[in-house]
Specification:
247 residues, two-stranded antiparallel ribbon, 10 helices, HAD-SF_ppase_IA/epoxid_hydro_N, acetylation, HAD_sf, ACAD10-like
Length: 247
Amino acid sequence: MPIKAVIFDYGGVLMTYQGATRCFKDLAQRHGVDWAFVQECLLKQAVLQHVSDETGLDLFRGEYTCDELENIYIPRLSVQKGCPMQCPVPFVSTWMGDEKHQQYAEGMISALRQLPALGFLTGLLTNNCYLDKERKLRRTPIDESLFDVVVESAVEGTRKPEERIFEICLQRFEALGVLPSDCLFLDDQPENLEAAKKIGWQTMLVNPVDPNSCVVELEMLLGVRFDDSSSSRSSCSQESDESTLLT
């Protein structure tokens, strides 16, 4: 089926995870936090599962915030793991909230910017979270005017791969005259792509370590050729443990 709309995830598609590891390692060294704890509990989302198991709350549904994560839940887990922190450390908010720590996938960003002129609508569908207790600040340091439709999990109260968030995004595209089969969804998590397929979207798995390597596949699916950019025209199949980072 011809594609009319391209819907992007943010982390792992428009942004790589390389900057997160550097940011977290620097903060751990400066604050004397055990690096093994950071790797296991923060970079691989164990703390988010721990909070969910303990409270039933979900960060990406907006049910608690990064402020609460860093000041309550991470210190509590560090004590349980036998490596107590001397004080709360702004791991997540520093990485998410400060654009200098974001490492963008410039090839994907370039492709995104060219899509409207090629006749495609664009969307952003991302698991997002609130940074502050007041729930005023969210972390998506990208120009949202690049997208015809923006759906953020914390705002909607539902997250990928839950069916409801895909239905919300689908309804907004249907209001623009786009059918489910007209949509192509790019994400770095297979379970999110499976959920998208259930509502009739076409999908494309992106390598979160090097999203730029997937621009060629995107060109093939769309039947276009993007202007040369910083994309790496190579295989999109590379795997890495960094795909488990906070998204």
